[in-house]
Amino acid sequence: MITPKGIIETREIPSSGDGPDANRFFIGSEGIFGIITEATVRLQNIPFIKASALVKFADEKAAIEVTRRLSQSGLNPANARLISPMESFSMGIGNGMDTVLLLGFESHDHDQEPKLRRSLEICREGGGTWSESDVSIRKGHETAAPGASERWKTNFLRAPYIRNTLVRCGIITETFETVTTWDNFDTFHPGVVSAAETAVRQACGNGIIMWRFTHIYPDGPVIYYTVIAPGKRGEELSQWDTIKAAVSDAIIAHGGPITHHHAVGRDHQPWFEKQCSPVFMSVLQGIKSNLDPGWMLNPGVLIRRPSGKP
After folding, report:
1. Residue 304 belongs to what domain range?
2. What digits encode the pLDDT tens for the residues 28-48?
3. Total domain count for the chain?
4. Burial class of residue 101, CB neighbours in 10 A (0-12, 13-18, 19+)
5. Based on the domain organization, do 62 and 5 belong to the same domain?
6. Is 266 contained in some domain?
7. CB 116 within 8 A of CB 105
8. Domain check: are 286 and 307 in the same one?
9. Is the pTM of this model over 0.85?
10. pLDDT tens, 193-246?
11. 80: burial class by Cβ within 10 Å (0-12, 13-18, 19+)?
């Protein structure tokens, strides 16, 4: 990484315990400390042994509990997306009433069907249902018939283009992705959804709030919220600002980070500042001042220059 202060080069090793990890520190700094010019990446074999299924739940709470059990089961699914009724319907894989779980396992080495079958047992214990046509098993390089997961993937890749069309039509659309712990979920999730619904009613009169789990950890889920609402000509930016601020404030107030896997940038910077302790923020500002004394690199991204500083 090239910085105004000089070059930083880390070693190519699998892992280390000798103090703070420079790689973890600089990756994710969004270019405010330096410019990464070379990187070593870890490769793995392409998985061709796959097993997947679509499971429906009439009870949303039961679906969430099953997903928690799966996250702590040691089965380690490659994909475990829990999708709200409205979002699953919009993606062509649901009926608009059931919460849908997309499950997937993959490997380049060994059969994945046993893991999927055990996962389906856990789903059945929680009230989940599925049809065998929504179960796909691939044990080699053979081509499998497109299943529910492939339908979802195709529509997922189309979604950004649809979003751009909605914006051109005056529709307010925004997404929020964050993460919380399982023990905080029952407070966090309703709090964020309620804030979004209130903001949408105030700014737009009505709208749709959808959500899904994009990742699951044994500690908790990553939740991705989508807001779609009618815009008023000439007021679209102020409507967007109102919704953006209300939902972001709710995420921080309930203990979540402003982003899990996207970035902070400029849009999220005010909320990143709220979630950081003042001491840690001063540490980041100090490192920035040390590596980039003129604060030239990516100004305004991630952190602000301390007031009163030249």
Report:
1. 1-43+276-310
2. 999 999 999 999 999 999 999
3. 3
4. buried
5. no
6. no
7. yes
8. yes
9. yes
10. 999 999 999 999 999 999 999 999 999 999 999 999 999 999 999 999 999 999
11. buried
